[in-house]
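Annotated sample (chain length 272).
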Amino acid sequence: MATPARPLENVPTALTIAGSDSGGGAGIQADLKVFMAFGCHGMSAVTALTAQNTVGVTGVHEVPAPFVVAQIHAVVSDLGVDAAKTGMLSSAVIVEAVAEAVVVHRISPLVVDPVSVSKHGSRLLAEDAIDALKTGLLPKAALITPNLHEAQTLLGHSVNTLEEMKEAARQLGDLGPGAVLVKGGHLQGEDSAVDVFWDGTSVEELRGPRYDTQDTHGTGCVLAAAVTAGLAKGAGMAEAVWDAKVFVAGAIERSLRLGSGYGPVNPNWRQS
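Output written by the structure step:
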């Protein structure tokens, strides 16, 4: 009989607090794949169940806020959390419960992906939850990662140009997070994929390749999860953000042509 290998010790732990995507392309399913790709032990607290595929979201079942908190407590009290991220939070009561749990359990660093609408246009955050997100959770984040639509939702004005992205990054910084990454994947008129990173002091353009593909489902989740994994392993914020941008570019370049709608990006691209 073979002798078992010695268990690994001091494996970085990363927690995703987000919704479940039954199609496997986004949400906790994507996050856990990314955590594994970065060598982290991934854990989850599910906030909502979605019935979705590459074509659209056909149903949402919200998890009661006390049970979301129970999942977080179970993980933190036994396994510990080196870094965490939030994704789909669905409602104001869940946002408020998660914000309180972050304080009670001293969860840090925290990456907040302010998910509000799915790739297919389905609402994933209630209108009355936006203020709770802005006042309760964003100030507790080490980094927030809004796309253009999410930046507009949080600020209440349009963000359609590179200069407007830079100003939005500064304005979002005024809401209290340690750093801001405004993602420009939907920015028109750019040959490259340009994001804007505000580190608490200055604004920097981060440029990478832009790929002509519709298979981009889960891009935002994968990026935020990659940053979270980097932070869990001890990387500085700027390093973690840049490594995540490189990672998501590879995941898009080698995306998966699955289904008849928006296929998922490929968190396993380094092994494929």
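Annotation: The mean pLDDT is 94.
Annotation: DSSP finds eight helices and nine strands in the chain.
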